[in-house]
Amino acid sequence: MSGERVADWTKGAPAIVYQSCGACGGVQYFHRAFCAACGAPDPRGQRASGKGVVYAVSLVCRAATPETKAHVPYNILLIDCTEGFRMMAHGEKDLAIGDEVAARFETFAGRLVPYFVRVA
Q: What pTM was computed for the model?
């Protein structure tokens, strides 16, 4: 899938997509036309498993926009994903650092977003 962008949640598809570099093996979450580690062109888009571990948790208690007011309070998490990248996402309110989680997709303020839940 080099050179083309794989549909993910930012395009309304229920998926998390990261990029991997064929030259150095580096992984990155934000889509770029080059590898952030070595500069090689066209890293390959791949679907992530949606599994990871909570790295940080922040409870948002104040709405940033009128659209988010109905969701307050809500958790924003940093997730260390199994594939080796870190991402920010929404998640269950009772999650703690070190919890193993898996992504599902929910609507938040009118958009489809990754939402992490504890793995039993």
A: 0.89
